[in-house]
Amino acid sequence: MKRNNHSLLRDEILSKVVKPTDHIEKLIEIIAKEHTPCTISKKRNISLTRNGEKQCLILFDGSVALNRISDGMILNAESAPFIFGASCQLAYTRHLYVKTKETSRLLLIPQRFFHEQVVKYHLWQSLAMLQDYSSAKVYAHCMTISQLSAYEIIRSHLLELIDEPNAIKNNITAVNYIMDHSFLSRSGIMRVLSKLKSDGYIHLSRGILTDIIDLPEKMNRLYSKSGPAQPAE
Predict the structure, then answer these.
(1) N or C terminus of the chain: which is more exposed, having fewer CB within 10 Å?
(2) In whole angstroms, what is the distance from residue 233 CA to residue 231 CA?
(3) What is the pTM of this model?
(4) What pLDDT is attached to residue 1?
């Protein structure tokens, strides 16, 4: 299945959210011009506070996820370019942390300094576009986990996974990816993946998703084919 077909199927579940890349790059170019980013290896946790002060994380290369401290659940994930932590209204720093999904190049700067630069260089429109996009992504995530059946959640995350960069999708099993993004149990996810694989809807290699041929929209269509499920490997 081609990439644009994956996006079309995913848009049946989530409203289409367009990343304001030009505005994000403008913010990064102006605000981070006198700072040097650092390279962080994958699966490293990054706090959004330093010495009690809120930080903005500017992502130049790679991809990161925003996780909840209480259970590690991924609430949002972004690839470069992006900026986390621009909102001064949310007390997110006590409850959330960022984890690199692959080796990434990033920069932490005080949120106070970030907003001073927004004022100085009249970057309000770009900041508004960033915040609007971030809100839409969180809303789409909430829609995914709160208004869909277990199968529809799995289907949605499979479509997200196949569109991830190779450095991510080739190094995480489908079941672990879905568990990171939802409250679904491993056994329930494995049961659905096994059925999808045995019926030829997806290809898995040692648990890693390699291709999506087609995905039924509903669970009853998934079980319309006969035959026992095979292990999701």
Answers:
(1) C
(2) 6
(3) 0.72
(4) 46
181-198: average pLDDT: 92
Q: Show the tokens assigned to 35.
A: 């700072």
Instruction: State the pLDDT at residue 6.
Output: 42
Instruction: Give the residue from 154, 158, 88 showing the smallest Cα distance to 119.
Output: 88
- Kindly list the structural domains of the chain, giving each domain's residue range(s) and its CATH number in brackets, ordered by start: 5-146 (2.60.120.10), 150-212 (1.10.10)
- φ/ψ (deg, to 5) at 217: -75, -35
pLDDT (0 to 100) of residue 93: 59
- Cα angle 6, 182, 128 (rounded to 5 degrees) comes to 70
- Residue-level pLDDT at 73: 83
**Tokens of residue 42, six digits:** 């994958």
